[in-house]
Design a protein that fits this description.
Length: 114
């Protein structure tokens, strides 16, 4: 059997604001942070779960919010954070599209390899 059968394509989806001059995008990293906030109710806990400093997570969220022109998180100080309605919709769309693209890429890869 060919060594190619051990390989798997990986899709990297990013969502951008075409009117923004910023290089920040909504991609896998911020999506994982948002999933962590959704699960834990805390940006700090989400960051720690990813092995990331809170200050870095905070900067990523702020930069992404500025680039996209939407607020992703509602922050309640010591009481944690939650996703805004827009944040939830964007995250749900990202997760669904990412899964579908990955599935299609794997099927096409297998088809091409025969």
């Amino acid at each position: 059997m060919s060594e190619l059968s051990n390989l798997k394509p990986t899709i990297r989806l990013s969502i951008t604001n075409p009117t923004s001059d910023s290089g920040s995008v909504f991609g896998r990293g911020i999506a994982n942070l948002c999933l962590g906030v959704r699960e834990t109710g805390s940006l700090n806990a989400a960051a720690k779960g990813m092995g990331m400093a809170y200050s870095k997570a905070w900067r990523i969220v702020k930069d992404t919010e500025a680039a996209l022109g939407i607020q992703l998180l509602d922050r309640d100080g010591a009481h944690g954070s939650s996703l805004t309605d827009d944040g939830n919709k964007l995250l749900d769309a990202y997760v669904a599209i990412d899964a579908k693209l990955q599935e299609n890429a794997e099927k096409e890869f297998a088809r091409i390899l025969g």
